[in-house]
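Morning run. Coffee first, then this:
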Amino acid sequence: MATNSGIAFAGDHSGFKMRSNMPSFASIRVLFDKLKMTLQKTQLAIRMLLNQKIRMKIRVLPFLILILLVMTHLHAQTNEQLKHLVYADSLRLVEIYKDLHQNPEPGFMEVRTSGIIAKELKLLGYEVITGIGKTGLVGIYKNGVGPTVMYRADMDCNSVKEITGLPYASTKIMKKQDGTETPVMHACGHDAHVSWMLGVAKIMMTLKNNWKGTLVFLAQPAEELLTGAQAMVDDSMYAKGVPVPDYLLGLHTTTLPLGTIDNGAGIRMSGSDQLDVTFYGIGGHGARPEDTKDPIVMACNAVMQYQTIISRSIAAQDVAVLTVGAMSAGTDNNVIPATATLKVNLRWFNEQTRNTLLDGIKRINEGIAVANGLSKEQYPTIKMKGKVFPLENNAALTNKINTALGAIITPANILTNTPASMGAEDFQNLVKGNYKTTCNYINVGIANPAVYVKAKEEGKKAPFFLHANNYQVDLGGIPLGTEIRATALIAIFNN
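And here it is:
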């Protein structure tokens, strides 16, 4: 069972005292603009004087120091106010998180979750558009002239039986879209993602005088299926009034210790494909296999041959993964079925590698069919269920965010050089092909630090992993994730 970290919750605000005479952000912004303009003029004057080689006693250093101190003070006031708001709201957010954790919903079935989000955003004053890509929705607030920033949170859960032992553990069994029943849990932290979004939505509305621009909260279905983002785009999301963002932001839980984030520039996650491969045969009695063409044998043969694609068709310095996650065929012990289906997942970083993987699968499939005496009409079929592109963080945006987060997170705990992950996301599909938008995606550590250290001492990479049945978010990560995202948003809006 997870325990809370040492992060203060509501009721403990000794470090976050608000000033009753705090100036409004409008007056602060005016002062800042005047100081900024004065600084620019002073710098220009200095350059002119130096260029003309005029010897004058210029006493500008104290002035520059004063400006720096004022700017630092203003930022500190904003951060202090934001932190106070976050932790004053922490108990509410934790209760939202627990409720979502107890009530997980699979992809495109997030009816209850999307309903909660829509209600909360409407109460806060956001314009809400529901039913995008079936269960997706957005909340929009236009707050004057400025950039358009979209913050995405995914909603769906995993088909995993929870064993955490937490008092708010999921015991749900759901019937998926294909009719199968399965235990479900939030083993990827999407319940935290939604909680963060609702916390940030309240803060940004409370601090609306502190920023200018258009803020879009996007609740996305079916990230685990890698099809939810594309479903929202294909449902004409942008034609329905959702503004195209200048910036697209994502936030995800990871098994790093609480107080650590992973936010590097460049490619951060692989591209991926989900595909179903169906083999066709001739079914019959299990006692007379000679009268059949067994698709199960064909599928098993394919599983083994697929593994040679990477080792024999892709250069050793390139990276790829081919996983067969499931096989479905038949229902009875003594019946050879007519079909067998493999559920395959691919991971890659470039289109050439992807094409090699797909060509190899097709070639192996057809070779197996020929070896079993099947006609072309009986060749295996491939159903493409979703493609996502590699996730790439814009360098300038990432650096800007990390600079802002350095005020609330120990800089040494902001990791920027971790290798790209073979994990995959579909969040970038929301804006793929729109070169106006730049993206940033942060992984936020949610493991209890003591539990994390103990796991490392035992020789483990981490105390648990994404999609595992013991995955759990330290409750201190709920307010911290909210503070991280809100801080980054304020920094982006205010350049």
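Residues 1-31, 53-58 have pLDDT under 50 and may be disordered. Good start to the day.
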